[in-house]
Every structure is written in structure tokens, then in C-alpha cells.
Specification:
single chain; about 375 residues; mainly alpha; three-stranded mixed β-sheet
């Protein structure tokens, strides 16, 4: 007889859990690279890049494959929120808003844990957990939008972020704390603001819109593979057009040439429209494939991707700290090459599989407790 965690797994959309699990594995590669890889490339913004600088292929691609993580993580957070809200209808509007605000605040507050375990002493970072948590709190208001309006607002936020960033810079507002937190990112004393709210809110709202389709339309799940394939191809076409034009949509991180790596060298800090189109396009095609796979085979509840995909926040909070602290304590911090990124990721994923499986069971057995927020 299946335990509660396995029974709950069977009722979920396997494709979404597999996608989250894949993102966790890729994220482990990036954070392992941060811990052990002395040649790690980190040139994903116009301010971090000097035209003509080399892009070593192995190091570049080791970083590039992990760009899929943040947009997918944020998009599926919005999708998951749509499912959660549909289950909380009986609590009323205030109950739903309270849950969203509390969970968003908790997620953002976990950046303190990341800062204390990962960052050099005295430095603090607001990265993906801040981006998700702050956007989550805004969703307490935006969830009231009609579904079509939510789609329009999501696309406008992603397409218009560069215009807003340009306007803020042009009016000398880029050093304003509210502007940095909401729009541009930047460095504020000992605080590094890497994931400003507004650009990532667009991605979350897009995920919410798609989640609403899955929740409200009986046929949306059956059409998911087809719809995702079409959306993914359209997004990739937009990426090609904008990257070829080498103008608006690139957040000033332009191509130096027509070389393949230059096409893939897009801005993540803050995310450009080309970054969103490329990564969400790839995500949509991968998800389409996973929906097709799920329609043809039964999901295995205890498979690696399923387990990691059902407790992604738990895995995230542990794996990053383990990787960085291990490198420091063992005197291995950034002592190796790109291969260490993959070796470290494999080790930490293997180490955390059983704890993640245990936590999944605990969370399933205590659905009304504190674990529902993580």
C-alpha cells in the first residue's frame, strides 16, 4: 500500500514535478561551480562584460545550461500558486491573501540563511528567493486580475522591463533603494540585489496564467504538450529576431559577433527579453516533452526527479549551503576546473535524495503545518 507521500505524488502532474526536479539538478551544477570551479564565468550582465573578452566554451556552457533554472523556478512557482489558490477557496479571500503574503515573506526571508552560509562574511545577497518571495507577495493583489488581463500584464512586464530600466538610469534613479529592489538590482553597501521584483514578477504572473488554464479548463491538460510546443517555438523565434537585431530586448548585453556563443550570451541581471524568450522557450519545449512522456508511462513516485521536484525549496536551502561550506572547510574553494561543477552536483544530489524523500513524506503528513510554507 502506498504511503501518503506516494499517494499524493500520483495525484499531481508528473511533468511539472519532473521539470522542477531537473531544474534542481541543473541548479546544483551552478552552485557546485560557484563552490569548486576556479574558472567559473559570471558575465551575465552588461556591467559584468567587456566587449571582446573571451568566452571559453566549456566554462561558458557550464554556466549557460543553468540559466534555465531561475525562469523555470519562478514560472512554476506561479503555476503552483494557481493550484494552491484553487485548493484554498474555502478559506475565503482573506485566508488566501494571508497564505500568499506569509509564504512570500518566508521565502524572501530565507535569503538571510543563504547569505550567512554562502556569502563572504559581512555580505548579504537578495537573489532568487527574494525575487520569488517579493513577487509572490505582489500576487496577493494581481491574482484578482481576469486571466486574459494577467497574461497581458505578464507580457508587458517582461517586454517593458528594459524600457523601465533605461528610464530609471536616464533619470538618475538607479541608485535609489526602491528602484534597485523593484527594477534594476545593484549593490547597496553590503547588500547585493541580484533579482529585482518587477522583471521576475512578469515571469511568475505568466506561470500563474498558465496554471489557471490547467486549473479551470478540463481540456487544457490534454492540450498541454501541443500548446507548450507552439509557445516554445514562438518564444525561440522572438529570441532569434531580437538577438539578430542586437538592439532593444538585450538589456545592453549585445552580441560582439555572429559566433554561436555570442548568441547565447544574454543578460540575466536584470533579465532581458532575449533571456526570457530563450529560457522560457526551452522550458516550454522540455515541458511539452515531459507531458507527452507522462501520457505514455506511469510516474515512479520515488524517482530522483520526482522527489526533488516535489520539495524544491527544501533541496535548494540545503544543497547550496552544503556545497559552499564543504569547499571552504576542506580548503577546496575554487581550486578545480569545470568538471568539479558536475562532480560536486552529483555528490550533493545523491547525499540529499533520502532527506528530500523523508521531508516529502513529512510534508504530506502535516499539510496544515509549517511545512506548507516551504
Amino acid at each position: 500500500m502506498a504511503n501518503p507521500a506516494e499517494a499524493r505524488a500520483a495525484s499531481r502532474l508528473a511533468a511539472l514535478d519532473w521539470m522542477r526536479g531537473l531544474v534542481m539538478v541543473l541548479m546544483a551544477i551552478d552552485h557546485s561551480s560557484d563552490a569548486f570551479n576556479g574558472g567559473r564565468l559570471f558575465t551575465d550582465a552588461a556591467r559584468m562584460w567587456h566587449a571582446g573578452a573571451p568566452l571559453p566554451a566549456v566554462q561558458f556552457l557550464t554556466r549557460w545550461i543553468t540559466h534555465l533554472c531561475a525562469p523555470t523556478f519562478v514560472f512554476l512557482a506561479g503555476t503552483g500558486l494557481a493550484f494552491t489558490v484553487s485548493r484554498l477557496v474555502s478559506t475565503g479571500a482573506r485566508g488566501i491573501d494571508r497564505y500568499i503574503l506569509v509564504r512570500g515573506l518566508i521565502i524572501a526571508a530565507f535569503e538571510l540563511w543563504i547569505s550567512l552560509t554562502v556569502m563572504p562574511h559581512g555580505l548579504y545577497v537578495l537573489q532568487v528567493l527574494y525575487g520569488i518571495g517579493s513577487a509572490y507577495m505582489v500576487m496577493a493583489l494581481l491574482r484578482r486580475l481576469p486571466d486574459r488581463a494577467a497574461l497581458v500584464v505578464a507580457l508587458l512586464l517582461m517586454a517593458g522591463s528594459e524600457l523601465l530600466v533605461t528610464a530609471a538610469n536616464g533619470h538618475g534613479l538607479s541608485n535609489s533603494l526602491p528602484v534597485q529592489l523593484l527594477l534594476t538590482g545593484g549593490v547597496r553597501g553590503p547588500v547585493i540585489i541580484a533579482y529585482p521584483t518587477i522583471p521576475w514578477l512578469g515571469v511568475m504572473l505568466l506561470g500563474w496564467w498558465w496554471g489557471r488554464r490547467l486549473v479551470t479548463s478540463p481540456s487544457a491538460r490534454d492540450r498541454a504538450a501541443r500548446d507548450l510546443s507552439r509557445a516554445g517555438l514562438a518564444a525561440l523565434l522572438l529570441f532569434v529576431v531580437l538577438r539578430a537585431a542586437n538592439a532593444y530586448g538585450n538589456m545592453r548585453l549585445y552580441r560582439d559577433s555572429w559566433a554561436p556563443l555570442q548568441w547565447l550570451h544574454v543578460s540575466k541581471y536584470p533579465p532581458s527579453l532575449t533571456y526570457d524568450a530563450l529560457e522560457l522557450g526551452l522550458m516550454a519545449l522540455l515541458l511539452a516533452g515531459l507531458f507527452l512522456l507522462a501520457s505514455r508511462r506511469r510516474a515512479t513516485p520515488n524517482s530522483l526527479l520526482m522527489v526533488l521536484g516535489q520539495v524544491p525549496m527544501f533541496f535548494y536551502l540545503l544543497h547550496f549551503a552544503i556545497l559552499v561550506q564543504s569547499a571552504r572547510l576542506l580548503g577546496l574553494e575554487r581550486k578545480y576546473g569545470a568538471g568539479s561543477s558536475y562532480a560536486g552536483a552529483a555528490l550533493v544530489v545523491a547525499l540529499l535524495y533520502l532527506p528530500c524523500r523523508w521531508y516529502r513524506g513529512y510534508k504530506a503528513a502535516h499539510r496544515a503545518g509549517w511545512a506548507r510554507f516551504i
